[in-house]
Write the structure tokens for this entry.
Amino acid sequence: MPDDAVLERTVAFDPATLSAREARRFVRGVLREAGREEWVDAAELAVSEVVTNVVLHAHTPFELTVRLTEDHARVEVRDWNPALPQQRSYDDEATTGRGMALVETVTTASGVQTLGGEGKVVWFCVADPSDADPDDLLAGWDDAGWDVEPLPEPAGEDLADVLLPRLPPTLWLAARQHQDGLLRELALHRAAHADCGVSEDDLAQADAARALLGSAVDGAVARVRLTSADRLPLPENHPAPLPEVPAALDLRVAVPVGAARSFAVLTRVLDRAEELAHTDALLVAPGLPEVVAVTAWAADQVVRQLDGAQPAPWTGADDERFTHLVNDDGAPLPTGWDVAAVRDSDAGVVAADDANRIVAVSRPLAELLGYGVDDLVGRRVVTIVPPRFREAHVAGFSRHLTTGEAHVLGVELDLPVLRRDGEEVSCRFLIEQQGTGDGRRVYTAWISPA
């Protein structure tokens, strides 16, 4: 025990979902033993976030130490995974990726100490509460940032150079946010369903592969944003807060030569998570086809190139395969809403479901776009989106499904619409959302030539 410590306690945990609750109970008990009830709330919240990260991402046993001095308490969580916490550039309403920022916001000091190949220690301190305004704490939510090192290169492993040509950053960032949600929910699902077809080792390998790619893309996007004028195209005055990133980049990633299995496992684990999401077994919506495809393409490129294949570029979201719902399997249309209000309307109107699939269209709009009134039903909304805007459309809708943010709903927009013959028509949009009798959502767009 350090000379200035008046009390120190350490306990070991397994990487189980109940460990966060037990860690909170342990910290609460030590602080109350020391007569520091006023530090309990902040310490419990912070340790819960840190321990949850260990359970979901480190996948190793861990030790929790609480050390008290006269003026503060220091809490350390030591695990045996060398991968360090990574900053995430997620939306304001994101349901994941906020843990480290939250820890920094509610504590007086925090950080991470690398132990090389032996793991790491994530620590924070709590002391007498300040008189900070709650609004200041919320403002710190987005400003918080830990000074952490990049992911360490695997010691003693040879590295191979993998090229991901024409990687779409906006679509990839939406895909990564979806990946994180899937893996988080799958880990929680597995705690209650050990026979779900995914092992603890599978989750660890998938998370390591995902983190390696995510870190590489983040670094490349940050570098390109400083120098490149080639930005993802968006319609003028579009209100969606998509990040300002390059339209595409050729990404080189150094990966261990033996990492092919981890990336193959990543694909298999995400495929299984998507299956569970389609059956509502996970608290996350299934991924849009482009989001699923760009993830599978990146992982497949790593596996193939490690086996000696030449790089194959991302073919783009304007591919014809995305105009029909992937793995539709006769999925039923939403129920409990008035389809006739769309189908029989004298105005231009189209309705789509939460899979971004067109479920009804009025005759005036169908004729404007060069289709028969039933031709568009069952096709995806990207069918009428000009190709240069499709990745932005998919990324924005994926963010909406993940976070609930809805910047385009109820706002009049001027957007181009793609006709069947390839010509574009400038139109005025008003998009509305309504619930359905089966708990799903329908999005109705009133469209007229501008």
